[in-house]
């Protein structure tokens, strides 16, 4: 009948998870970015942490596969070691650090050579917000001819 077995379906899911993980690793700069990009792609990433090493593992599950109606004794999804033996947490940390360094060097290369200032997108956004707030807080009150009438009335009383 050409039906797939559960083992074949599991292998396909693992291959797809690995492809999505590799694509997300290309643009992520830290684990928060990685988790966010994976969530956007339809996967939930649960990071395992320990005091000595920091992040020591991860579990990936497809959001469609999560079933909250049944009580399970095991965690849904697959551990990183079950998905691939070629990619370890240590490798992921190196990739994320390299991406963060590349991002910092890209920001540094965008600096203005005349003033030797480094452009920080976060700071420029904050500057824009600060300017907008100052603009909103400026008094919009302009003295008019009516003010003279008010002064005269106050003097009479």
Short description:
With 157 residues, this protein is of the alpha+beta class. It is built from six helices and three strands, in the order ααβββαααα. Strand 1 and strand 2 (54-62) form a beta hairpin.
Number of helices: 6
List SSEs in N-to-C order: HHEEEHHHH
The overall average pLDDT, rounded, is 79
Molecular shape? elongated
| CA-based gyration radius | 28 Å
Instruction: Provide the helix percentage.
Output: 40-55%
Percent strand equals 5-15%
Quaternary organisation of the protein chains: single chain
Which labels suit this protein?
three-stranded antiparallel beta sheet, 55% helix, 157 residues, elongated, alpha+beta, 3 strands
Please provide a written account of the structure.
This protein is an alpha+beta fold and 157 residues long. 55% of the residues lie in helices and 12% in strands. The chain is built from six helices and three strands, in the order H-H-E-E-E-H-H-H-H. It has a three-stranded antiparallel sheet with strand order 1-2-3. A hairpin with a 3-residue loop joins strand 1 and strand 2. The longest helix has 22 residues. The protein is elongated. It starts with 5 loop residues before the first helix and ends with a helix.
Layout: helices, strands, pairs:
Elements lengths: L5 H22 L3 H10 L2 E8 L3 E9 L15 E2 H4 L5 H21 L11 H17 L7 H12 L1
Helix pairs in contact: 1-2
């Amino acid at each position: 009948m050409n039906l797939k077995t559960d083992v074949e379906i599991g292998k396909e899911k693992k291959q797809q998870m690995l492809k999505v993980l590799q694509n997300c690793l290309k643009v992520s700069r830290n684990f928060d970015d990685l988790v966010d990009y994976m969530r956007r792609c339809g996967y939930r990433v649960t990071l395992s942490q320990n005091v000595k090493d920091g992040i020591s593992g991860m579990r990936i599950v497809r959001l469609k596969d999560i079933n909250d109606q049944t009580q399970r004794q095991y965690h849904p999804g697959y551990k990183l070691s079950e998905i691939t033996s070629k990619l370890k947490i240590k490798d992921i940390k190196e990739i994320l650090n390299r991406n963060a360094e590349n991002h910092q060097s890209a920001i540094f290369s965008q600096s203005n050579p005349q003033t030797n200032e480094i452009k920080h997108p976060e700071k420029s956004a904050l500057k824009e917000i600060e300017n907008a707030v100052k603009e909103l807080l400026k008094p919009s009150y302009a003295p008019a001819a009516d003010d003279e009438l008010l002064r005269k009335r106050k003097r009479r009383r």
